[in-house]
Amino acid sequence: MFNVIVRDTYDEVSSEAFKVMKEVVRKKNAVLGLATGSSPIGLYKKMIADHHSEGTSYKEIRTWNLDEYTGIPHTHDQSYYTFMHENLFNHIDIPEENTHVPCGEGDDLEQNCRDYEKSMEDVIVDIQVLGIGSDGHIAFNEPGTPFDSLTHIMDLTEQTRQDNARFFDNDIDQVPTHAITMGLASIMRARKIVLIATGANKADAVYGMIHGPITTDCPASILQAHPDVTVVLDPAAAAKL
Ligand code: GLP
Questions:
Q1: Which residues in 78-113 are b (16+ Cβ under 10 Å) and which e?
Q2: Which end of the chain is more exposed for a tag (fewer CB within 10 A), N or C?
Q3: What is the CATH number of the domain that holds 84?
Q4: Could you tell me the distance, in angstroms and rounded to a whole number, from the CA of residue 36 to the centre of ligand 1?
Q5: Has residue 198 been placed in a domain?
Q6: CA–centroid distance for 136 within its chain
């Protein structure tokens, strides 16, 4: 079930997402599902500001991230490991061992997938942060990914690599071709979801997610079957609703 909120500016969009997050992080030992991409950066800034001004502590909070590129080291400046440290973890009091980002390195990526699933085995995510790709992907679950998927390796589509080339000197050849990602079934297990989308290039995907058929052609459409999804949009992303 969707609660759709539309706000004029990115700052207001981030504030609405933060309101939902704040309810959850009040619980000392909450479990957060975190996302990368540009959409949640404003939310993370508000979490950092609140940590500093209100003293909200993350010492007993644990986090699991959605995805990571393969083929680049975790120390790469565009890895999602680096992204999470630069945009959130380094600025709050969360212990490093409480944070989990899938490992996209090594010879046996299938084993990395199994290890990541195992790390989440007894965990229920209290709130899952999501963005959405312009093709309707969530995490790195591209169109065609089965709804019952767990953590797996994904071939990235041309469109996703093109969208993300802006982080790689606008050079698609530098964008990794594969990623390790939580599956759609893993994401659907979260108690609550907050999805952030801004900009006109998300309008079709947002429409498909909310009003389209539930189909693997638009992976985000599976969220229609989730009981508690807050979708925070700007007017451009909401334009087709
Ligand atoms: C990447 C990430 C997704 C993210 C999407 C949209 O593909 N794997 O988790 O939602 O990009 O990113 P952005 O928020 O930068 O538009």
A1: bbbbbbbbebbbebbebeeebbbbbbbbeeebeebb
A2: N
A3: 3.40.50.1360
A4: 6
A5: no
A6: 13
Task: Answer yes or no: is pLDDT of 28 > 90.
Answer: no
Q: Tell me what pLDDT residue 222 has.
A: 98
Q: Is 67 in the pocket of ligand 1 (CB under 6 A)?
A: yes
pLDDT tens digit string along 33-62? 999 999 999 999 999 999 999 999 999 999
Kindly report the protein residue whose alpha carbon is nearest to atom 1 of ligand 1: 37
135 is catalytic: yes
Please give the model's pTM, rounded to 2 decimal places: 0.97
Instruction: Please report whether residue 131 resides in a domain.
Output: no
Active-site residue, 97 included: no
The token pair that represents 158 in the structure block: 């041309």
Biggest CA-to-CA distance, the chain: 46
Residue 103 domain-assigned (yes or no): yes
| 137 carries an active-site annotation | yes
Give the nearest ligand 1 atom to 202 CA: 16
Q: Please write the tens of the pLDDT for every residue from 191-210.
A: 999 999 999 999 999 999 99
